[in-house]
């Protein structure tokens, strides 16, 4: 069993938070180390060196009495041997600040920075016999400066509401660049219900791997990330090949070329699950203090980015809902205004027609009743005029029952005149 878990409180008092932050910074950047070596002769033979110098070059390469170029062949072409020759030849010391040097070779090559002084050594007569190399490695300071610069840039991205995918991808690449050994970073985002994890960022993991774990469930024994999300505490798997948490994903991990996975849950301020932050390694590995400190620093930044994203998304959804409600209300108001206008228009038309009918009826009342039907058209109708009809425009006429029936069925707005004028009664009793 190689899974190890640990819980770090999500809420602490300010003094404890400051102490934890200082502890993380010490773990990340440590203390600068002074190096010393004494070289002799124009070949710069190594006479003595302190433990820090030995640790810098590697104890396996230490051989007193050997030329420095034989101990550190990678220095050739980087200008350091030429500076040693210059100091030895002129007797003038040299001091450099943040001098960059590449140490080691192949996959073990590392970048280092030094504040260094080359001082000439002289005999009793004043002749230069060698050089003292005195330096302070500033690699950690340089990395700290660069890390803080990158961290500040991430915070600025969050503040200006950059897309979450952009922030997470930049953060993952930043950690991969600063980790002392090769590491592949992955961020998974929790679904709203906290039951599944979705792809957030993993710039160095293969696409097939990211696609395969996109949507994995949270639960005990579901890899490092699913378990960390379920437990709400870090889960450290130092050897995927033997850990039971990886039984269902071991073949996938082997295809992706990863052998260790340390996962940390990303928690909101209220303790809710936001996602997981994972560091993968090509070989089985146990985390060092530096690794854990780096994880804590960026897990907090990731939580800030995700929470800000959730807030902005909720705000955008609320604004969209408010706009939709406003638009719906505006449509309802416009529809009500249209209906009211139409109703008012219909009322005005009806009143106008009523007035016309009344006027037509009044006018007809003063005319004598004809003897013959007036609705027979040009051929005329010899039937007696029995029923009076009128239309909406005030026209009225007398007709026989047959022609009155035809007019009512075929002509719009024609109606039987009022009973007082003899129309309705005659029509009903025809």
From TrEMBL:
Positions of the GAF domain: 159-316
Domain of life: Bacteria
Matching SUPFAM superfamilies: GAF domain-like, PYP-like sensor domain (PAS domain)
SMART domains, per database record: GAF (SM00065)
A Pfam family the protein falls into: PAS_4
Name recorded for this polypeptide: GAF domain-containing protein
Taxonomic source organism: Micromonospora mangrovi
């Amino acid at each position: 069993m190689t899974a190890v878990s640990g819980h770090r409180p999500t809420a602490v008092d300010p003094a404890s938070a400051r102490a934890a932050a200082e502890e993380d910074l010490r773990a990340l950047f440590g203390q600068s180390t002074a190096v010393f070596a004494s070289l002799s002769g124009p070949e710069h033979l190594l006479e003595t060196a302190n433990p820090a110098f030995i640790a810098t070059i590697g104890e396996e390469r230490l051989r007193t009495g050997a030329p420095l170029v034989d101990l550190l062949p990678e220095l050739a072409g980087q200008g350091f041997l030429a500076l040693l020759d210059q100091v030895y030849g002129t007797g003038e010391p040299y001091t450099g600040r943040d001098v960059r040097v590449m140490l080691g070779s192949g996959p073990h090559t590392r970048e280092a920075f030094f504040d260094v002084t080359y001082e000439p050594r002289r005999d009793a007569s004043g002749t230069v016999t060698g050089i003292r190399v005195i330096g302070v490695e500033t690699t950690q300071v340089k990395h700290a400066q660069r890390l803080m610069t990158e961290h500040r840039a991430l915070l600025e991205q969050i503040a200006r509401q950059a897309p979450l995918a952009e922030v997470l991808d930049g953060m993952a690449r930043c950690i991969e660049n600063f980790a002392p050994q090769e590491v592949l970073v992955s961020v998974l985002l929790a679904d709203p219900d906290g039951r599944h994890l979705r792809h957030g960022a993993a710039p160095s993991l293969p696409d097939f791997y990211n696609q395969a774990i996109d949507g994995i469930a949270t639960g005990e024994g579901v890899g490092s990330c699913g378990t960390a999300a379920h437990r709400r505490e870090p889960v450290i798997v130092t050897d995927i090949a033997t850990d039971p948490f990886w039984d269902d994903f071991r073949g996938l991990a082997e295809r992706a070329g990863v052998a260790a996975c340390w996962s940390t849950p990303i928690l909101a301020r209220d303790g809710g699950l936001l996602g997981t932050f994972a560091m993968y390694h090509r070989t089985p590995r146990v985390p060092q203090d530096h690794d854990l400190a780096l994880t804590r620093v960026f897990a907090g930044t990731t939580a800030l980015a995700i929470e800000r994203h959730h807030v902005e998304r909720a705000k955008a959804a609320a604004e969209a809902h408010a706009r939709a409600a406003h638009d719906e209300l505006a449509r309802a108001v416009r529809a009500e205004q249209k209906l009211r206008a139409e109703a008012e228009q219909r009322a005005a038309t009806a009143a106008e027609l009523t007035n016309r009918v009344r006027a037509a009826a009044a006018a007809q009342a003063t005319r004598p009743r004809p003897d013959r039907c007036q609705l027979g058209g040009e051929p005329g109708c010899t039937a007696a005029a029995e029923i009076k009809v009128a239309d909406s425009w005030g026209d009225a006429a007398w007709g026989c029952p047959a022609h009155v029936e035809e007019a009512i069925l075929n002509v719009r707005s024609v109606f039987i005149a009022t009973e007082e004028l003899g129309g309705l009664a005659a029509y009903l009793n025809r």
